[in-house]
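Hi U.,

Before I forget, here's the chain from the pilot set. I'm dumping it here mostly so it's searchable later in email.
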Amino acid sequence: MHRFAGWWDGFELWVAGLPFIPQFAVVLVGMIPVSFAIAYLLDRGLRIALRLLGRDRPAAAQTPVTRATPSAGRSAVARTVGARRRRQPARGGDGPGAGTPRHPGGPRPRRRRAAEEAV
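Structure:
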């Protein structure tokens, strides 16, 4: 372990002594494969753990979905689950020019203040 620690300290000193661009290239060449390896190992480990717990995707897809039976005492949430929502029109209507600002181009008209209106 001391031999590896000594080698690593020497490598760190070598990288730290490089100019920025070669230092950046050395770190990228080392970190990209290491990052992919860590991500791959985490993905595999979590996939195995979730499969052992029965929480993987195929098991979730096979779970039957039950629907509440209608009754007089249903809550407001239960009543809206099966209801279809009405399509709301786009802001400003669905016709030509929908979504455009109300005021055409050019300078905006000056708004009167309450003091000016009173005079």
